[in-house]
Structures are given as C-alpha cells and as structure tokens.
Amino acid sequence: MNERFFSLPEERQQAIINAGYRVFSRNTYKNSPMSEIAQAAGISKSLLFHYFHNKKELYLFLWDKCAQITIELMTKYGCYSQSGLFESMERGMRAKMEIVRRYPDMASFTIKAFYEKDPEVNVAVQESYHRYFNLKADKARMNFDPEQFIPGLDIPMMYREMYWASEGYLWEMVQRGDVDMEQMERDFGRLIAFWKSVYMRKS
Questions:
Q1: What is the tally of structural domains in the chain?
Q2: pLDDT tens digits along 138-153
C-alpha cells in the first residue's frame, strides 16, 4: 500500500473505504472490478491503483480495517471492561450499530469475506479472523465473573455454542443475499435474552 493513502483527508479515506465495502459486499472477490470501486469513491481507477497496488491488497486492507474499527468501537463502548457477559454483548450491539452508521456496508462485506472461497484471499482472511477473534475473546473473557452463570456450567462449551449459533445465523443471512442490519439487531437481541434465561444464575 502507498502511504499517501493515509495522508488523504479522513473524509476521502472513508469514501474509498466505503466504496470498497459496497462493491465487494455485492459481488464475489473475482467479480468486483477496481474500476467500479473507483467510480463509487469518486476517483479515477489509476488513482485507486496509486493508493493500492492491486485488488488483493485493497481487499485485505479492508478486511483488517473491519477488525480495527470493531475493536476500537467495542473498546469505546466498554465491551471489554464488563464483568457481566451479557452486559458486554448488549454494549457490543450498540457499538455495532454505530459501525453501521459510519460504514453502512462493512457488516455485509465482513460476512461475505468470511465465506469467500477465492484462493487468492481465502487463507489470509481466515488466518486474520482467528487472530482477531482470539484477541477479542481473550480481552473480554479475562473480566467475566464465572459466578454469574448457573452452577456446573461448561463455560467453554457455552462460548462455542453461542459462536456456532451466530455463525449459522450469519450463513443463513448470506444465503438470502441481503443483510438486513435492523433485523439482525432484533434477532440477536432475542438470542441474547434467550442465552441469559438459560445460562445466568437465578438470583
């Protein structure tokens, strides 16, 4: 990547980032032309290639940017400093709604990229995902009080179950072809309420 990208005004950087998210979220990696991204960003194709040497570089930059933005906003909303798991998850929902306001197509891009099968980017995306996922999980879990849960609960299995449920839900949304963030917020709100009713120690 050309460092001149970071010398651009923040508004111009965000326009390019959002254009990339928009185009990549609506097509496969292979069928997402750089010319279309440049047009959506309001710049020439040659200028886009001046900032990013090729499509793969831009794609992986956008993928890593998703993790950086998410961790930044989750930290801002106090998601990693809560002793209560479900309080942290509810704050996370609020953080993600702010992300949607700033980067409307980022969530769709993230889901699309996670299931992207193109060998040019698939391995790098999966390696990056697991690195960031473990980092976020470790930052959060170190604060959780195990006494909040029902006695005898297999906590690692609970985390795994919630992860599997979330991944299955996202896969279903991808198969529909249209990610409705408001519907996702409602559905995950119901999931969190259900998990609380099952796993929380009754006072």
A1: 1
A2: 555 556 778 889 999 9
